[in-house]
Amino acid sequence: MKQLRSTIIRAGLGALYFTGAHHVLRPLLAGAGAVFMLHHVRPARTSDFQPNHHLEITPDFLRATLEHVRALGVDIISMDEMVRRMNARDFGRRFACFTFDDGYRDNRDHALPVMREFDAPLTVYVASEFASGHGKLWWVTLERLIAANDSLDVEIGGVIEHIDTRGTEARQAAFVKLHDWLRNLANDKEIHLALAALCNRYGIDATSACRDLCMTWDELKTFAADPLVTIGAHTVTHCQLAKDTETKAREEIEASRAAIATQLGRAVDHFAYPYGDRSAAGAREFATTRALGFKSAVTTRPGMIFAENAEHLTALPRISLNGNFQDERFLSVLTSGAATAMWNGFRRVDAA
Predict the structure, then answer these.
(1) Which has the closest alpha carbon to 115: 68, 70, 62, 73?
(2) Strand 151-156 to strand 159-164: parallel, antiparallel, or no bridges (unpaired)?
(3) Segment 228-261, tens digit of pLDDT
């Protein structure tokens, strides 16, 4: 199903590009600007099994994106400046913001040097437990677990299932099956318990991915000192807030903000909802971040930024720079607003 979805998206992007429809639609759908969403930026990996490939782009593709945005005459600005323009209804020039989720070390090593080439600000949303070195990047751990074994015995719904993981196709199928099973559990505590059982059985360290991939507090202090960098909050444990109680969700948001402020010695005014889709963040979470005084909060719901979003700054959409669609031809489609409009039903505001 995920492969089919990717194929459909690629076909849709290609159709918009080759028909030139996005050029006609740009004046209607491009809006005031865009917030780009990224995760990893690093050189391409050679492994045949990369189920999390959608979460990474190469430095060259980031560079191509920045070049494209600048060629459009679009201002690349910080989230603070975006909020200022939105509140002032200052839409004289279109803008773009670049945001990175989770706090990966490659944001420092590979993304920041490219951003410096363009004097382009970036915002990195940090899950505080990741920076502490004992967070659980369960989607990465699942990839490593499958890659390290020829088969897995997994208890799903009270029944032990024997899952073949020999060969790239079998591994990909196993990842999709287990990822969907984990993501649909009641909450993140259940995800971590289920994966911990598998890790214990097959000798995988559930927290090693965090230490391997995420910046530590000391690294973040140096990183955050760069004038181009803004650090935002991303909860403590990278949880699906909407699946927690209101009290627990608020604690995740507040504690993450407090930890970052204490460790880095600066105010934390911007937030990103982990996962960020409808199942993970909705009206309750949007109201919570607003009540806590965040200047902005971003989702993963697709969309451009329009003037109407000024009334919903804690429910902002983003454009994903998806590693599965690293084709420079698609950049003009993405920045036109045509693709996201079709994905979100032509809604300018999606804050419910």
Answers:
(1) 62
(2) antiparallel
(3) 999 999 999 999 999 999 999 999 999 999 999 9
